[in-house]
Amino acid sequence: MRIYTIHVPDRWSRTSSDPDLDTVAVKEGFCWPAFFFSVLWALWNRLWLVALGFVLLNVAVGLVAGWFVPDPVVQGAVSIGIAILIGGFANDLKRWTLGRHGFEERAVVIAGDKEDAVIRYLVERGAF
Fold first, then answer.
1. What predicted TM-score, i.e. pTM, was given to this entire model?
2. Phi/psi zone of residue 102: left (φ > 0), alpha (ψ -120 to 50 degrees), beta?
3. 107: domain range?
4. For the chain, what is the domain count?
C-alpha cells in the first residue's frame, strides 16, 4: 500500500464537464523512473518546465564539474547525487505543476495503485 495525494481541477481547469473524470492521484515518496530517466520521465508526464529545468541542471552540473573537478569518479558521484535529488523531488514537482494548472489537493489516500486511490477517494466522497 502506498500513500497518494488526490488533486481535483478547479472549474476553469477541467477538460470535461465532470470533475471526477479529471481527478489525479500522485504517489508520495521516491520516484524511481525519474531517478533513472529524469528528462524522459518529465516529458512523459507532460512536465515541460520541469524537463527544461532537468536539462539545464544536468548541463550546468556537467560543465561546473568538468571545469573544477576533472576526476571522472567525482563527476560520477555528483551525477548520482543529482539523480537522487531528482528522484526524491520528482513527485513534488508533479504536484507543483498540477497546482500551476489549477488543480487543488483535496485528500490523502492509502491505496495499492493510482487507479485504486482515485476510486477510493470518489467512493468516500460519495461520487459512486
1. 0.82
2. left
3. 2-125
4. 1
Helices (H), 30-71: 32-36, 38-44, 48-68
Chain segment 75-108, per-residue pLDDT in tens = 888 889 999 999 999 999 999 999 999 899 999 9
Q: Looking up cell 487507479, which residue turns up? A: 115
What value does the mean pLDDT take over residues 28-33?
96
Mean pLDDT of 3-24: 77
| Long-range contact pairs involving 88-96 (C-beta distance under 8 Å, separation at least 24) | 88/30, 88/31, 90/31, 90/34, 90/35, 90/38, 90/41, 90/42, 91/26, 91/27, 91/28, 91/29, 91/31, 91/34, 93/42, 93/47, 93/50, 94/26, 94/45, 94/47, 94/50, 95/5, 95/7, 95/26
